[in-house]
Amino acid sequence: MNNVIHVDANMRRIDKNRKDVKPEVPPFTFPNAFDRIRGEKRWCSWKWVLSDSGRWTKPPMRALNEAFSSSTDSDTWDTLTAVQLRAETEPGERGVGLMLHGLPLLGVIDLDNCVDQNGNLAEWADDVVRRCGSYTEASPSGTGVKIYGFVKSRDSVSCKVVRGGCEVELFLNTARYVCVTGKQVGEFGFL
Among the residues of the chain, which ranges form H helices? Predict the structure, then answer.
């Protein structure tokens, strides 16, 4: 496996601390790895929003209006079709998200700050991706990756480890959502 992420023009790196420049949302491509959950009503829209602290964030939102979605209230979730339509209607402004609450067999490992300026995956992150051997995609910021995989546990897990400026988060059946880009990294196109 080539451990270089080829960051194309649509996946350029985003500096979330530059409040003078609103980041663009990369175009969404539905990953075939998610075919098993395509029809489930557990999707949301998202867009970059400048927080009170001056940092760009990605809150979950409803596809049909400007209301926020709740990661624990399925009445605020949408179908993939509605979310994709919103993303296509507002290119560069709206992205696609996946709610993890109540989805006990899908785990997500979020590796932040592991892609350098040249698009190279850090050695430690490359090792994690290889060991997991599951669908991996670039994050919306272009500075990290997410690894998705089906697991045997039905427990609820949410944890975060920060070392040397790098962050690793693990989510399983938890009150969280993740932004989905469909920009595959590496050779594993399945869960």
Answer: 80-89, 123-132
* CA dist., res. 9 & res. 167, Å (int): 25
What is the rounded CA–CA span in Å between residue 18 and residue 179?
A: 20
C-alpha distances in Å from residue 133, one per residue of 63, 68, 100, 129: 32, 34, 20, 6
Tens of pLDDT, residues 141-185: 888 999 999 888 778 888 889 888 888 999 998 999 999 999 998
Q: What are phi and psi of 105, to 5 degrees?
A: -105, 5
Q: How far apart are CA 121 and CA 136, in angstroms?
A: 12
* Edge-to-edge strand list for the sheet holding 157-163: 136-138, 145-150, 106-112, 166-172, 157-163
Give every CB contact of residue 75 below 8 A, 6+ residues apart in sequence.
Answer: none
Q: Is the pTM of this model over 0.70?
A: yes
Residue linked to tokens 């049909």: 64
Q: Is the dihedral of CA 72, 74, 75, 80 positive or negative?
A: positive
User: Is 44 buried (19+), middle (13-18) or exposed (0-12) by CB count in 10 A?
Assistant: buried
The residues, ordered by sequence, that sit 6+ positions from 185 with a Cβ below 8 Å of its Cβ are 5, 121, 129, 136, 137, 138, 145
DSSP assigned state of 28? P
